[in-house]
Amino acid sequence: MADTTDAAMQKGPSILIQIAMLAGLTVAALGMGWGAGVYLKSQQPQAPQPPAAQTASQPAIATSGLKLITQDLPPITTNMAAPMDIWVRMDVSLLIEKELPTETAAMVHQDLLAFMRTLKMHQAEGPSGLQHLKADLRERAMLRTDGRVRDVLIRTLVFE
């Protein structure tokens, strides 16, 4: 009978011992983390020093001599290929070296409109969809202008 009462009394370490062990392990983990950080920081190569400040006579930015302008196209409003009840409105500008003739700009506008009519909603979803849409618009504009368009800037894009 004495054995059963002694076994019931010995449940494990007291709560104070458990808290002390937890605190000790926490301090040990913090010390090891700090030590690993110091070691890794010492292994990192030094960052290159920035060049000395340039004088006012030397320009800080080298210019390429290429001056680009934007040419706005009329807004494109059309419905999409799928689903048919979704409408899209897009305002686009072309980044070019010199202004395009009106006929060429109208051809680019009509080509982009025709492309937007073939677009499906899932093709324009998410950040990658927007990047693919922009790349497709740029490619079509470059084909219509024989490479005179540097980029297509999407100013607004609304799906309704």
The structure class reads alpha+beta
Measured as a percent range, the helix fraction is: 40-55%
**In whole angstroms, how far apart are the ends?**
82 Å
Poorly predicted regions = none
The average pLDDT value, as a whole number, equals 87
**Number of separate strands:** 4
Radius of gyration: 33 Å
* Large-scale geometry: elongated
Largest sheet: 4 strands, antiparallel
Give an overview in words.
The chain has 160 residues and is an alpha+beta fold. Helices cover 46% and strands 18% of the residues. The protein is built from four helices and four strands, in the order H-H-E-E-E-H-H-E. Strands 1, 2, 3 and 4 form a four-stranded antiparallel β-sheet that branches. Strand 2 and strand 3 form a beta hairpin. Helix 3 packs antiparallel against helix 4. The mean pLDDT is 87.
Produce a short descriptive summary.
By secondary structure, this protein is α+β, with helices and mostly antiparallel strands. The protein has four helices and four strands; from the N terminus they run ααβββααβ.
Keywords:
single chain, 160 residues, four-stranded antiparallel β-sheet, 4 helices
Would you spell out the secondary-structure blueprint of this structure?
Elements: H1 2-9, H2 15-43, E1 69-72, E2 76-79, E3 87-96, H3 102-118, H4 126-144, E4 149-159
Antiparallel strand pairs: 1-3, 2-3, 3-4
Helix pairs in contact: 3-4
